[in-house]
Amino acid sequence: MRQFNISVIGLSGTEKDRGQVGVGKSCLCNRFMRPMADDYFIDHISVLSQSDFSGRIVNNDHFLYWGEVRKTTDEGVEYNFNIIEQTEFMDDSTFQAFKVGKMDPYSKRCTATKVFSAEKLMYICKNQLGIEKEYEQKVMPDGRLSIDGFVVVFDVSPVPNRSVEKQVEFVQNVIATIVKNKKPLVLVTTKNDDAYELYVREAEKISQRKDYKSTVQLIETSAHESINIDLAFLMLAQMIDKVKNRVKIISYQESAKSRKELLDTRSEAVTRLIRNQITDYHILWSQGSKMLSQYREWNEFLNIFGHEAGQKLFRRHMKKLRDDHLNKKLHQYLDKFALALEYMLPDTGALNISDDDAWECARNYLQNHIEFEQYFFECPQASWTELVDMDEAEDEARIPFDVLETSEAETVFRNYLNSVQQDKKKIGWKQQFKMLLEESGFVTPGKQLSEVRVLFMGRECFEALSEHDCQQIYDIHQDEIIEKSKQNFVELLLEHAQYFLQFKNVDIITQEDVRQITDVIQEDSRYKMLDRLDQERRVMLVQHLRFIHCPIRDHCPFFNNCVDSLIEEVLSDKSTTSNHKTPGGVGGGVGGGGGGWKTTGNGTDRTLNLLIVGSEHLASDLLNDIRICTGSKGEYIYENQTYYLNYRIANGDMEAFKAIDVYSSGLICVYSNQQSFETLKDNLERTLLCNLELEDKFENLPIVLVYQPQDLKENEVEYLRSEGMRLSEMLHCDFIDHTQNHQKYVYDILNIVILSLKLTEMKSYDPYPSNHTDLRILCCIFCGDQYDIENIVQPLVAESTLVKASEHSIIVDVFIGDAKRRVEFILSSYHGTNQYRDELIHGYIYFYSAKRRSSLANLSILAAQNANIPLQIIAVTESGGVNAFFNSDICQFLITEGNALADRFKGSFMTFSADQYVKFAFYNPFLKTSWDNKYEVENLHVEESITLDSGEGTLESSVNQMPRPPPRHESYMLSNTLGTDGSGSENYEMLPTRSLNSLNEERDISLDEIYDENNEKPKHLHQNCTESDSCASSTERRVRQQNAYFKASSKASKASAKKQKKKKVAIPVQTPRVPPFGSYVSPPEIPLHYQRMAIVGAGEKKKTEAGVPEFMKSDKSPEYSMVPELTAAGIFGAENLPEYNMNSKCLKDFEKLEKRRIKEEAARLRKLQEKEKEQEKKLKRKLKQNAKGLAESVEAQFGKLMISSEQGEIPIFLNKCVEFIEKEGLDSEGIYRVPGSRAHVDMLFQRFEEDVNTVIDVLDIPVNAVATALKDFFSKRLPPLFSKDIIKELEEIAGSRGVGVGSSKLNVEVKTDRSCRLIALKSLLQKLPPINFAILKYIFQHFVHVSDNSKLNSMDSKNLAICWWPTLIPIDFTDMGHFEQLRPYLEDIVQTMIDQFPYLFCGKDAFVMV
């Protein structure tokens, strides 16, 4: 490492010689030697006292030794510098230069190449003089230095009393001397931060003089700004060392710019650091600087700017923190003040003052208010800002009263005052406008505000309100009258229950049927009120027909207030608040104990007592993982329910299992190796399988087997995993592999325990077997009746012997006559009674509203169906009892009719007031009647059961066969969606649907259209569409499915002792579900399910076979449904007959009429089929003619790729690509999503352009490249399949703007109905040219094949739609917002075209009214 001795020289002397200030030699040396800001001093005076001049620092010399420093270049070369500053010191008494022996002039002395001064100390700053011992003491080496080079300083700043000529002369003289002595030098301009342009040019002239022969390098510096200081000395060192590749000289402007960027970066970093680390404005500088000193950014900032700048920045931040805190606190107070005004000053009229002194009066009013201390507090000793600074008001929720002295508080008050006054006026205007709408008879449902606006012109309330407010109030009024009109229309339909009865078991609804219904009700004002909402009225009519055909809770017009739902809520509430005793006697009670009803208790917290069993440390490790996931309190939330966990650990021996008691919620067994597994397996087998002593402890106890492999070989891991799974199957428990689900295995364990407990609790709801009750009474309540159901249930649930048998039934022990009997009361809606038709019922109690015609109309039908069973009719009146009979004509009429109805069916009649409290004895007379008729009712039930169960094709022939168990994790209706994308498209694939607009077409609608021509069963399996299934949750359905196998097997074992009762089985089919009006579905949901009832009769198959249509003869049912072949009884619709008043003669007459009807229906169906065949032939002929002409023009326009294939008008390139993909790529994961090589794609196109008969198989091209080429063919080679007009209509359909069939503008929007959009889409596709339609059909048929293999290729209909919609529907989007708005709907359009392919492209319409 080279050592260089550098001498810094420049103009010096008296003030007369050098001007008022020096040229900057000392500052230049200071910045070079000690660059840190805290070590840089500005004031270096040359006027000294005699003592200071004689000290060891100056040492009676006219030069200063600045010490030694090491510097490194960018290339990594290190240089060592000794710095000498040649100056001239003045005596402070004479202001003349100190005389030291024989002295040469400064201009000659400063260029000396050798300096001598024994024991001379290093100079740091002027404060060092006189107190040298307090500073670092470093002696000039050897007392002498040989100068290697010179730094000549030229000050470019303007200085008073100094002419530039004097400085130029001095610099030229010294440079000449140095050059003469052949020493390297650098000319350095100082103070460039305050440079004068003229002086800069003078310096440049000096450096550029020819006689210097370019040996003088000019470097612009600024010591104050620390710019180019090191550059000057390093350049001199390289000149001395004669280095060829010297450092680049950078101009002052460039260096200043870089320096500023560096300073800004450091400042921003430190500002950000302080902002993040210092958040409390109470922190002192000493504390803050200590905290910040740990960070590199802070230290770099101090090195550049110094501690003073850091302290200044810190204090500025502290002030900002305090101001922000005060502002935040002030805004909190102001927010509270606004709330206080609303409570304490709700009426500004209490002030009774003018605007000028309102604020002063308001403060006085608040200070004298009775609730003042609740919102405010006063502190005379300190202001609110001082309280905030002292943190005295942190725990105080009230407002310091002196906050109200701020201008911000007055602004809050003024704003509140104005808002109150405006709100008063606005509320008054709104009320007036609402009353005006209610009084006007011209505002009817469906009218727009623009139609009736002229009626309100000139009214103050209308003119004062904004357009938005008027429209908002009008919309609210429209919603009210529309909802009221809809309710009235539903009542109209329900009142005509007798007429709608003929459609109960009709599978086909014709246009003529709809016209007949309309003719019956169209004169009623309730029908006419919806004339402007014809589409919604039609939807409600279809919904009602669906309800008549399949009367389940989902179809109930009062779905949210369906009686079945209300009964569940009432009984559930009673179960959580009551503490009834379980009935004793024979058969025991439900729940097994004496502590009330056993319920799931969704609304309360639960406790899980977990026993963790594992050898050595395994149980403790698992417990630690559980505690990490559930927190210190052991809380776990599952389905919005909080569970508190208690744990116990056992070491895995027999004593551990004996620790299980009845309060245990779950047993978790963990193993990790062969030894721990064998120990666990031995104890489990001995305990659970062999030890009868502990049998009760493990009944319904959730068990989870956890595998945590540790330090095992791969084959050992697999072996222990398989053994664990085998053990879990043997014990019917769950198995969890820690390695396969490391992230969430704890949550899986807890979820399994909770779900198992819920399933166990649900089993407690299994209804009592009928042989455990003496009487079964069915209480029927009509949905929508305006009385409290709890008043009806109250007499029943008030009994002390009550127990809840199921969600809809309770059991009561009551004295009938002289003996105590057990009576089961089943509470159901009118439509819910269908599920009890085949069960033994000893009596019916019908409740109906005495002010509602529809209630009595439906009661009449229900009573007629059960005429031979004891019944009681109860009319529920309004409060007032007997007075209601005389005060209301409708009430008087309905009570009279109800009494006559009871007399007609030989039943009893009673009235029940809504506010009347009755006891259980109210029902005793009817129970006595039912008991007296019990024998006749049971005999009649047995006779009808024998009649229905005998003969060919009944369930009796298969009663001894073991039914197949259902899939473990799947419902009958939907496939397992685990691993899918969640779109749900796989659940309704290939099921044809039809919208409500189908009623406009002159075509019959049949349930049987879901079957294909060969009468094969549908692809998807469905649940039985019973009331219990449709209303149950997904968990309950799974419990029923899992229990179906065991229930059926237990019944089969008892078949020889007791005849089994035949169950009616329904085959549900996917149908469009009409969403409720006023809701917006985006994208529309999949339609719900409907069902077709099929009942098998006895011995009539051969007699009626000739009259049954062919598709009915070989009707096959879905798997697991156990539906026998359709026979005469099923065709007759026996469920529509009264069940207990049909003698054999009436049955024969009915059969004859039904046979005749079936023959007529079959003939009509044959005519329709022939007509459809003729239409298809005509369409094929037309397609052939059009295709012939268009194919030639297309081929000429688009080349050989468009040559038709063997498939007709399908382009040969499309045909061959599809065939190759379906042959090679249906199992290729991500087909169409993973792109192929562009080189392969281009090669494929080139080969086909050369030879259209190219065989793709021989080209060795990946299937993904062929798929990409197919997409490119549609987007780049094939003309658009949709014209601009059709794309516009498609955009309207996708955007849900109310497109209907055959029209792009429909007055009534149907955007919430997926089925209506489906019909519109089909109508749009029919407008396409034949070739376009054929190509579209061909490619979508291919998509169906791809989605059928989605389990292999992960490309279901939704993923295909995402990949293909931009290609098939090239819409020009105006902006990104337009794109994001339409994108999900366009995806849904393409997905629908895949899912509904048979309906949209094959003409297989299938729309059922339910």
Assembly state = single chain
Mean pLDDT: 75
For the biggest β-sheet, the strand order reads 21-22-23-20-24-25-26
Name the shape in a single word: elongated
For the sheet with most strands, the description reads: 7 strands, mixed
Radius of gyration: 49 Å
Distance between the termini: 98 Å
Layout of helices and strands:
Elements: E1 2-9, H1 15-18, H2 25-33, E2 47-48, H3 50-54, E3 63-72, E4 78-86, E5 90-91, H4 106-109, E6 114-116, E7 144-146, E8 149-155, H5 164-180, E9 185-190, H6 197-207, E10 217-220, H7 229-241, H8 252-277, H9 285-292, H10 296-305, H11 307-344, H12 358-367, H13 372-375, E11 376-377, H14 384-389, E12 399-400, H15 407-439, H16 449-456, H17 460-464, H18 467-495, H19 497-500, E13 508-509, H20 511-521, H21 525-528, H22 534-549, H23 563-577, E14 606-614, H24 618-630, E15 635-638, E16 641-650, H25 654-658, E17 666-671, H26 674-690, H27 695-698, E18 703-707, H28 714-731, E19 734-737, H29 745-763, E20 775-781, H30 789-797, E21 803-804, E22 809-816, E23 819-829, E24 843-849, H31 853-865, E25 871-877, H32 883-887, H33 889-904, E26 908-913, H34 924-932, H35 934-949, E27 1005-1006, H36 1027-1031, H37 1034-1053, E28 1065-1070, E29 1089-1094, H38 1101-1104, H39 1110-1113, H40 1128-1132, H41 1144-1198, H42 1212-1224, H43 1238-1250, H44 1263-1277, H45 1284-1294, H46 1314-1325, H47 1330-1348, H48 1350-1353, H49 1357-1368, H50 1376-1395, H51 1397-1401
Parallel strand pairs: 1-4, 1-8, 2-5, 8-9, 9-10, 11-12, 14-16, 14-17, 17-18, 18-19, 20-23, 20-24, 24-25, 25-26
Antiparallel strand pairs: 3-4, 6-7, 13-27, 15-16, 21-22, 22-23, 28-29
Helix pairs in contact: 5-6, 8-10, 10-11, 11-15, 15-18, 18-22, 18-31, 23-30, 26-28, 42-44, 43-44, 45-46, 49-50
